[in-house]
Amino acid sequence: MKKTRLSYLLFIFGTIVLGLLSRAIKTIPLFIGDMLYAIMIYFMIHFLFPKAKTRTIALVSLLVCYAIETLQLYQADWIVNIRSTTIGHLILGQGFLWSDIIAYTFGIGIVFIIESFLKKPTDSL
Q: Which of 14, 21, 62, 84 is the most buried (most CB within 10 A)?
């Protein structure tokens, strides 16, 4: 299935909406929002590099997510001030959690499997 930058842009915005809804609806487990965050990163990387291989996109997305999560261990005043804003909190998070790493891995794994399946050529009858 051929994707364009426009379709990835729509996927990004759709994922952001779903992610914000997942935080607004208290009955949705928090890990769903973390998975959606990783999926959004995957779509952003794909938007920036539309011709890259799916495997490469998944690996780079995981590294970006892991880097952002690990950065949460850094607690300098300037970055804590950024994290105290709404947008800073949404992008950078608050504190390191291993459960976030697991959620990111599952989120990117799911979208990678789906996209890999959709990219396989179908057998003609």
A: 62
> Is the pTM of the predicted complex or chain greater than 0.85?
yes
Other C-beta atoms lying within 10 Å of the C-beta of residue 115: 17
The whole-angstrom separation of Cα 5 and Cα 49 is: 9
Q: Distance (Å, rounded) from C-alpha 66 to C-alpha 122?
A: 34
Angle subtended at Cα 19 by Cα 118 and Cα 11, rounded to the nearest 5 degrees: 35
| CA atoms of 57 and 108, how far apart (whole Å) | 9
Contact 50, 4 (CB under 8 A): yes
Query: With a cut of 70, which residues of the chain have pLDDT below it?
Result: 1-3, 120-125
Helix/strand/coil for 47: helix
Residues 6+ apart with CB under 8 A from 102: 31
Q: Which of 60, 76, 66, 68 is nearest to 93 (CA)?
A: 68
